[in-house]
Amino acid sequence: MDLAITVMGLIGWLIIGCFVVARLVSFVARQKKLSMEDRWVVVTGCDSGIGQGVMGQLIEDQASVIAFCLTEEGAKAALEAGAKLAPQLDITDSAAVREACDQVIQACGGQLWGVAHIAGYAQPGFIEFQHLDNYHRTMDVNFFAITEITQRLIPCLKPTRGRVAIVSSVDGIVSLPGNAPYDAAKFAVDAYADALRIELSFWEVSVSVINPSTLRTPMMMKFFESETITWEKMEQLNPDGIWKQGWTREWLDEYIEQNVKGLDIIAQDPKHAVNDICHALAGARPKHRYLSGTLAKTLFYALWIMPEGWSYRIKKAMISPTPNTELPGQD
Asked: What is the CATH number of the domain that holds 195?
């Protein structure tokens, strides 16, 4: 009996040792980077924030960057920073996307190494005071634009066995209150990326999803204040609507004030996402998924894997103060 216990113990330690060694080998292998010199990469959302950071890092690594920019100022700045091309376009405009992708194909000669989908849009607000236009616009930028650009550029990625890096969000794995259009778009992006990864694996094209938590970007730092825009738009369209039951402007102002204070404390450097996106493009062994930021790796990962009933209670507790639940005519 003692011998059997000893043998079982040795086998257990052997399994643990093999697991630790395998993890160390995997970690070391993932640190290796490929040379990006003269590799053509398309980056969207280069006007500011994460997109601008990724563009700058790739240029520093001597990649040939094609920067998709929304504004003329952004395109000019991208060219000055060293981008090879900087088409100015609204990525929800199919004609503009077609023209920009034609420029990409011509510039890279059909040999494109990577596409980094970073451009994003959010118009937060609770469901009852969300207008349908917000859902359409959010899906157009965060989902449909990604599918259209990818579809047009896939033929150029196959010859190089290239990379696709798609910025989703922790909202793509954990849906949060107060941001339903964005959450829905990011869940769609994650599902699309999973299917794309499998389909393109036959040509050894890698597809990575980046799920950042709260980072100090221009869009994120104005996130809660922009809820007032959502409210005011619905108020103009339907000033006396039943949607106001339980939701008041006073409640919204207090909710925003509390969350803005918390946001300033927890927001992290965008470098967390920039580094992960660059690894997805230049790492010898890119991951399928990157959780970018401390909260993504801790709180949101826990919410993602814990029983649904537990995560429901935690997410519900995030709404503070709570709305008035008394309905007209109730005793």
From this structure: 3.40.50.720
